[in-house]
Amino acid sequence: AQSVTQPDIHITVSEGASLELRCNYSYGATPYLFWYVQSPGQGLQLLLKYFSGDTLVQGIKGFEAEFKRSQSSFNLRKPSVHWSDAAEYFCAVGVLPGGGADGLTFGKGTHLIIQP
Amino acid sequence: DGGITQSPKYLFRKEGQNVTLSCEQNLNHDAMYWYRQDPGQGLRLIYYSQIVNDFQKGDIAEGYSVSREKKESFPLTVTSAQKNPTAFYLCASSIGSPNQPQHFGDGTRLSIL
Q1: How far apart are CA A85 and CA A95, in angstroms?
Q2: Is the CB of A43 less than 8 angstroms away from the CB of B90?
Q3: Are strands B108-112 and B10-13 parallel, antiparallel or unpaired?
Q4: Residue B34 near residue B20 (C-beta atoms within 8 A)
Q5: In the beta sheet, which residues pair with residue A3?
Q6: Chain A within 8 Å of B32 (Cβ-Cβ)?
Q7: How far does the CA of residue A18 sit from the closest CA of chain B (Å)?
Q8: Band of the pLDDT at A99, cuts 50, 70, 90?
Q9: Most confident by average pLDDT, A47-56, A57-66, A98-107
Q10: Site from A34, A93, A102, A110 to mutate, B interface, most B CB atoms within 10 angstroms
Q11: Residue A17 gets which letter from DSSP?
Q12: Which of residues 52-91 of A touch B (CB under 8 A)?
């Protein structure tokens, strides 16, 4: 079974500083990888996704992520954070078609705090 | 605008009572999902449905039931057998392929009176 690890439960970043959120996955083949963001009391919004091809993917709100097969990682980055980026961030992995559309496996999330 | 509507936003349950959470989508998606979110636990899959009249148990299906009589609707019933139902419940839908992202509703927060 696949699994996702987000090593940082909380991260505090100053406004205007760069950001990197870590995500490691465990899966036997090339996974489908996603980053979602959640504001308090809200649903999840998709930031970006990786399926194949270019390992650096661009998303919404100025976010990008890089897939590194050798490290089983899919870290999320942003060059300059804004106060509105404060939220919970989830990394998720989807299985290959052989398993059907049976949902995503999520990491436990990283809570991002922005300091003024 | 197309999207997923969950209702109600807040729900309270008495001990021994069943409650049903509504999820409706107008995205014409084949697949629908229910997740449970607890603080510090991320999201865990309760049930999913790939087509009408078919659904599968996820990782934590005990104490829950679902139905999929229409493509647009995937209600979740939290039964009295679920001993710790207090949580944030999220419904999602997708085209049905794992390389397609899931779209989420705004959630229902269930609490025990």
Answers
A1: 29
A2: yes
A3: parallel
A4: no
A5: A26
A6: no
A7: 25
A8: very low
A9: A57-66
A10: A102
A11: S
A12: 90
Q: Does B75 touch chain A (CB under 8 A)?
A: no
C-alpha B105: how far from its chain's center?
9
Q: Specify the pLDDT at position A52.
A: 81
Q: Do B106 and A51 touch (CB under 8 A)?
A: no
DSSP state of B80: T
Largest CA distance in chain B: 40
Burial of residue A53 (number of CB atoms within 10 Å: 0-12, 13-18, 19+):
exposed
Nearest CA to A85 out of A3, A13, A35, A7 is that of A13
pLDDT tens digit sequence for B40-83: 788 998 999 989 999 999 889 999 999 999 999 999 999 988 88
Residue for token pair 């809200």: A42
Q: Where are the beta strands (DSSP E) in chain B?
A: 4-7, 10-13, 19-25, 31-38, 42-51, 54-57, 64-66, 76-78, 87-94, 103-104, 108-112
Residue entry with tokens 């060059």: A79
User: Do the Cβ atoms of B97 and A97 come within 8 Å?
Assistant: yes
Beta-bridged to residue B12, according to DSSP, are B111
Amino acid letter, A20: E
Single-letter code of the amino acid located at A74? F
